[in-house]
Backbone:
């Protein structure tokens, strides 16, 4: 069965998806029984040269042509950002097309609305690529671990900040210097706010926690602190005490049954499974009541890793279409827990206090409260 | 929609499955839209006390009653071993029931035959629990990574041998002593052959490689060596050279395009991602051409971890049944590669040679060829 795909957006992930579908077309067709064919691509810059082999006759600047083409079964939204992506996705769903996206900000902010629209239209909506690049996370959490009550979810979900913290840890350099290096290497954006201030990580935590704990989570309800305040000295003191500093996304059920969600730099014991996740790699550690601890690890970003997730979603949708089972994955999401108020967290803090103005304490630069 | 399940076998995994389905029934129903109800259980020992809460009126010694009950939609085969499990599975499929199993030996030896029977019957056949306990491996490999050409698969797939090697590494003890300790703790069987001689690991590698490389693999075609020959001295020398010894399952595409499959103790550099997988934990590292390296980690055995996988498979089948999409996951498996002849492997070996009879070399106990 041939499934026709319209792609919106031809940046890093769009090009990766076109390339993976082209290179592994025979493999995918053989394994899935479906032939996935890209029949239209819309981009703001149709004439720009691309680093991959792509039939230029498919490319135009015309999004409407994709959304209105009755022969297109699935729209892959690979533009990013909230608008106009949200508008395009809702219109594709309303037109009876299934949608696949890798857009974390869109899902984190409007996932509930979009899932409802997909359910009303009786089509599929999938977003594996929105968290952790090509690491299987959304499907394992939603499908493989469906029999578990998840009690904790902890992850390193942003490659840029993990790269910066890794370099600071290995080289003893300070934040600003490593950020400049990361920018020159293309690992950080010219405006690094989304990454270093933790917004990107809160989007991803909102997506994973929404699945794990059974209800859409607003990223605004997540306590957030980025890594700008982490200095070389913090990392040095952490090491002395047997810890490394990582930007952690944490969702867990507190003893009172409520769920707390937070993103901030944290001290991890050097033997912790996430402590050795370095450079641009991502990893998520989950605890389920039946499975115990499980961990997933891999490249959390990049064109082809994210394309790996997009292609997997396209195949799942194609399988549903082949069986007339669009919308198959359904099952409603209703809150299983209350979200904890930000002011009510109980946690341990390490506070470094410069006390050079009090001579009898000279040299004391920190207080570390009991772990 | 109510889906009726018949369970064959009420050992560790059977009891775990009954318990997880009971404890998380509401959660599973809400998330999946399907109510999974166990309506019959057959076991050789129906009157034996069980460590879990189970409605004893469901339990009997009568397998036929399960296979012939027209109201049962899915049979969960949790007996283990090849016969009579194979016979029961084939008869359940022929009767139009979908089948879920956690039986590694059965899948490794007869997976191709059973998949064909399921395809003929137009029903589902799933086996996530057969490898790595509750770690999502089969579904991620088959679904999430479907767009990838997998070039390497490397894993620690047997908890018993990993426990023994971990204790030997941490305590400097010899194989026989640690084996006895593992047996007394219930981590090793009275007859430990299946684990320590690597058979269990070859079954699991056969299953994963069959999916990753696209064709059923016979466990007999896998080069196999267990850990009986690993001594405290090997581990000590390995450590001196910066390595740890692990029982590794390896499937990879050699430079000539053929696939080599082997199970044996191997030296891993101490910084290798699998080197820190200790005790009864399992882990699999895969490399796909799009996704790069991805790793999965968790408890590779045990009642509830394996039940986590069995329940996930039951829900996937239930979703297919609800949509009239049984057999949805299909797509034929045909060999993508040639299997490498066992005699044609190219690898590096570390050989320890006792040379005490040659006085001028006294103290030289090993030769390590270039890594």
Residues:
């Amino acid at each position: 069965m041939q499934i026709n795909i319209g792609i919106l957006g031809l940046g890093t992930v769009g090009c990766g998806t076109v390339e993976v579908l082209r290179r592994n077309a025979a493999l995918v067709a053989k394994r899935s029984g479906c032939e996935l064919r890209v029949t239209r691509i819309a981009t703001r810059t149709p004439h720009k040269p691309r680093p991959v082999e792509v039939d230029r006759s498919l490319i135009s600047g015309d999004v409407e042509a994709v959304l209105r083409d009755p022969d297109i079964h699935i729209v892959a939204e690979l533009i990013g950002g909230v608008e106009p992506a949200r508008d395009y996705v809702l219109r594709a769903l309303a037109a009876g097309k299934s949608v696949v996206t890798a857009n974390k900000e869109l899902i984190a902010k409007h996932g509930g609305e979009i899932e409802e629209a997909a359910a009303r239209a009786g089509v599929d909506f999938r977003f594996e690529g929105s968290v952790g690049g090509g690491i299987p996370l959304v499907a394992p959490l939603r499908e493989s671990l469906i029999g578990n009550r998840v009690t904790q979810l902890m992850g390193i979900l942003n490659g840029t900040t993990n790269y910066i913290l890794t370099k600071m840890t290995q080289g003893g350099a300070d934040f600003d210097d490593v950020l400049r290096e990361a920018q020159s290497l293309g690992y950080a954006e010219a405006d690094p706010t989304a990454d270093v201030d933790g917004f990107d990580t809160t989007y991803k935590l909102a997506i994973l926690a929404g699945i794990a704990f059974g209800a859409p989570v607003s990223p605004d309800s997540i306590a957030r602190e980025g890594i700008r305040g982490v200095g070389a000295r913090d990392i040095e003191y952490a090491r002395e005490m047997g810890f490394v500093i990582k930007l952690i996304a944490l969702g867990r059920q507190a003893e009172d049954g409520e769920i707390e969600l937070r993103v901030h730099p944290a001290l991890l014991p050097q033997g912790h499974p996430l402590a050795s996740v370095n450079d641009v790699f991502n990893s998520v550690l989950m605890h389920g009541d039946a499975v115990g601890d499980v961990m997933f690890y891999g490249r959390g970003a990049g064109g082809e890793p994210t394309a790996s997730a997009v292609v997997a979603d396209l195949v799942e949708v194609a399988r549903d279409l082949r069986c007339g089972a669009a919308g198959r994955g359904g099952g409603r999401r209703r809150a299983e827990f209350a979200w904890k108020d930000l002011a009510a967290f109980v946690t341990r803090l390490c506070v470094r206090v410069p006390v050079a103005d009090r001579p009898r304490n000279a040299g004391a630069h920190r207080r570390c409260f009991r772990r």
Observations:
- The domain at 2-134+302-322 of chain B is CATH 3.40.50.720 (Rossmann fold).
- The mean pLDDT of chain B is 90.
